[in-house]
Amino acid sequence: MDKMDFQQGNPQEDRPKRVAKKKRRKWLYLVLVTLVVLAGVAVALLWDATAFDGLRRSLIYARAEKDETGCVTLYRYAAEKDSCFALLEGSLVRGSTQSVEVLGEDGTVRYSADVKWRKAAACANEKTAAVYDVGGTDIFVLNAQGLVRHMQLSGEIIACTINEKDMLAVTVNKSGYKASVEVYDAAGEKTFAFHSSDRFLMSAAVDRSGKLMAAVTMSQTEGEFLSSLVIYELTGTEPLLDAAMRVDGAYDLGGVYDLGTVNKHWCAVGEDGLLFLITDGKTKTTTSFYGFEGTYLRRCCLSDDFAVVLLGRHKAGMQARLVSVDEEGQVLGEADVEREVLSVSAAGRYVAVLYSDELVIYDSTLQVCARLSHVSSAKQVLMRADGSAVLVGADSTKLYLP
Fold first, then answer.
1. DSSP class of 2
2. Lowest-pLDDT range, 55-64, 118-127, 173-182, 294-303?
3. 258 - beta bridge partners?
4. Which of 335, 329, 369 is nearest to 349 (CA)?
5. 253: which of 57, 183, 270, 320 fits an S-S bond (Cβ 3.0–4.6 Å)?
6. Distance of CA 121 to CAs 99, 133, 293, Å?
7. What is the pLDDT of residues 224-235, one digit of tens each?
8. Which residues pair with 315 in a beta bridge?
């Protein structure tokens, strides 16, 4: 039998080839890992509002022309009294008794309409705003590009709120009732109405899920005013909850100035404290409370994750305390204030406070992140979730980039 001849090759010649092949594979693996890491860092820098905010702003506004204070002039408009403003992605919405506008960061007027209103007010989420005539019947729903729809209601508008799903809760005066709440979906269709014949309605809102509507009512019993919270499913006819706004069954919240949500909790801003409430509408309702303890509420704003209140030690004077509170009623941070406050705004994890002589940006624990002097021309501040702030003046706005 013939012998079979196996060609095993020359190990002295083939070994370098095998080593080179392994080195190529290792090099390709390292390149791939590096690209993945760089891509992750890039995504974090550009999209994560809770990390690397400063570097993210620097990248986005690298080519913007800044003045000596580090600000960029974004929007210009006619000087009109009693204007209201709302920020959208890349646009500013402005309403007044004479006009409604959407202004782009590129300097263009993306939408403009002449109006004759009693008083303009605005509410907004990140992508949609509603500008309305208080005491009138008009609502302009707008996005960053311009008009979405113009709505004319049958009753006089008292207040309007908008949730994350572009649903409106509009408090209106209706003949035969002390007040009513009408809910409109993102297409502008009325999906729910709540009428009150024996109690006044102070404020109303639709929750983030778009399934529940809450309204604050006020009634008078034996000469005393009592606030109550009414919650409805938008598909139902009977309230899931109708309860007096009391703490431990005794402490009344007082008059309620605002109603919104903080981390899925309803938050009612009263003259005596913040009441946080979460309910399944059936068997379980939990509440938490932050009391003002004898101080006087001067300003309040609600962020997605916390509430901020400015509390005066006296009815008059500049001595006050700035406090941030989470949905459990726990204090996140405090800061003493001994000067005039013109405006407070919160977004993301930041709080902007416009003083008469300075703009200060805090984090949610009220630790100072940035300061800007020479702000005498600004009358209002609008905080942005990326840590920048828009300073609103009489005829223009400036973007402060810390």
1. P
2. 55-64
3. 269
4. 369
5. 270
6. 12, 7, 31
7. 777 888 999 999
8. none
